[in-house]
Amino acid sequence: MYDMRKKLTIILWALLGLTACQAQTAPVEPLRTGVEVLMWEGVMPKGRVAIVGNQTSIVGSTHLVDTLIASGVNVVKIFCPEHGFRGTAAAGAHIDNSTDPKTGLPIISLYGKNKKPSPEQLADVDYVVFDLQDVGCRFYTYLSTLHYVMEACAERGIPLMVLDRPNPNGHYVDGPVLDTARCRSFVGMHPVPVVYGMTIGEYAQMINGEGWLSNHARCGLTVVPMQGYRRDSVGYRLPVPPSPNLRTAHAVALYPSLCLFEGTNCGVGRGTDWPFEWVTYGTDTLDLRHEEAPAQFSLKYLTEMYRRVPQGKFFLRSNFFEKLAGTTELRRQIEQGMSEEAIRATWQPGLERFKAIRAKYLIYQD
User: Fold this and answer.
1) Is residue 229 exposed (0-12), middle (13-18) or buried (19+ Cβ within 10 Å)?
2) Which CATH code is given to the segment(s) 34-233?
């Protein structure tokens, strides 16, 4: 009897080990971006097509424009956001209209005075395809470009297709919700927190569904969702830098917490080899290159540098800090010496209201 029990125990443990091994080696569905799903399914946009894209609009190692043309799509023009079609222009730099040397297509800038496609620019367009890599932060201007493209398409009855891409900061929701009455600008147009935890396709659905376009217009929107994407995939590494000063996954992760320094007299490493990985004021440096990025929108860097900078010298005289923060309260709270815990508590009612709105438009598992 003892030998039989011993044999059964050995067999049981062997079966458990096999099950565990199978669980560990079970195939994981590969991540396919929206554009990859589009090419896989072969359902192409019809008529005269305009592309809203930049250097991140790629299929493998080939640009979306080249891929669609090779597939027989009649691409007639390109619209590009801040940083230009090839993503080389500095933040805030003027971008002229130009011509793509490879295809001969006209490139129209949607930055500066021409943020929204005009009726004339859309007169020869039947369909618009939007494919830009977002980084999940309210002040990243590709969201504002999305808004104005949707608005222009809604006004002319032109259908819009958004090709979804992963959000590298999509695993959390945090920060103050933007006060649209006082702080609305091109670096923040909607009542959302600094980090909103949605892909750009989900966000487009929210713009439409919440009536945030002018006159509560609705865009004829199609979102091509990804396959194999999980929102809790922390630290997704983008294949192409989304803009000139977000060169690494570490910089992208720190960006939500560091971008507010753009409204202060401190620098964030622009012009160096490590933009958005350190903060400087004169010779005083806060070096974050080897520090793990926080898993939330953090105020610790702002409050640390505020203590180091001479009184009255920290914030810019303009209200750009308020535009980035989305509220007039955060500056006052920092100046009054409130703790981060106390400041964060003031955000919670707004965050809970936003999360209830956000839940209606999610495509992927939280």
Assistant:
1) buried
2) 3.40.50.12170
